[in-house]
From TrEMBL:
InterPro entries: FA_desaturase_dom, Fatty_acid_desaturase. PANTHER family: DELTA(5) FATTY ACID DESATURASE C-RELATED, FATTY ACID DESATURASE 2. GO terms for molecular function: acyl-CoA 6-desaturase activity. Keywords: Membrane, Oxidoreductase, Transmembrane, Transmembrane helix. It comes from the Bacteria. This is Linoleoyl-CoA desaturase. Residues 67-340 form the Fatty acid desaturase domain. The chain crosses the membrane at residues 46-63, 69-89, 207-227, 233-255. Pfam families: FA_desaturase. It comes from Thermonema lapsum.
Amino acid sequence: MSQFIPVAFARNQTNGFSTELRRRVKQYFQENNLPKQGDWRVHMKAVLWVAAYLVPYFLILTLDMPLWTAWLLTVVMGLSMAAVGLNTMHDANHQTFAKSNRLNKLAGATLALFGGSPLNWRIQHNVLHHTFTNIPHKDEDISAGGLFKFTPSEKTRWFHRYQHLYAPFLYALMTLAWTVHKDFRQLVDYHRMGLLHRQRTTFARELINNIFIKLFYYSYIAIIPLWLLDIAWWQWLIGYLTMHFVSGLLLALIFQSAHVVEETDKPMPVEGKVEDEWMVHQLRTTANFATKSRFWNWFSGGLNFQVEHHLFPNISHIHYPRLSKIVKECAQEFGVPYHEAPTFARAVSSHFRTLKQLGRS
């Protein structure tokens, strides 16, 4: 893999839409005297969801319970793992969890609790996905090594005809891949692309960090339970896979239903350029879902307001419901698209219809 070459976005294509939107959002924070970072609501959720992951773990280790009860607790751990990722880890790695950089770094490191590399995640998500959303060969969130066809410009393979059928099974492996091979593969790729250097780190340092994270993770998630509990290895494996399947499927559906849906664009750059300015590109390639649902706004860490998150990733998700009114109004005034699905189910349905259409085109 060669050095990473970015894509250029157009400028001033909408008679000042980006300038006006930024002005209105800035004015909103100034008039209401609000910080852009999260507050006690974000911090309380962090405590809640980390506890919801660790408490079942210690209950399994210390209480004599039926296997089916322990299995149900692994389901709870999977849901909690997804919630920590969507809320605490995600906000912290965008520097919006708290004003303190140290607290953001500590909260962002919760990914290591689940066997993943915070640095790799920041490069994939903050640098590649947020900058080059839905652009083939740039946005790794729509790159699946040929297993899926997420954009019209990708080569169609015979098995893509069935991708809408096998997608849930592969999506369920997403977080499991972090703990096995993905971090090491990404580390090699990012080193060759020069992205580690841009993060002011080295391949050797991050390789040691990754090895330490994996040793820590498998020590508490595998070695300790197999040592303390009177269970067979395959019983442990069922619980372990259940936890990751629940987390992986939920996370994948939330992220994919915000970008790979019928309404969003999947543009192919021409001579290294995209025809839209960056903010307009984000609106064309991103969609909201269930914005009136308090549950999804709370559980997903505001990622049901994916449009606002992509436009202002440096602002905490607690502000997105208010910002969405500003963004939607400004987009209508300037004739810029604003995509949203009324429910999560509608967004997921649109995603699978898109997979089916792309697989047969």
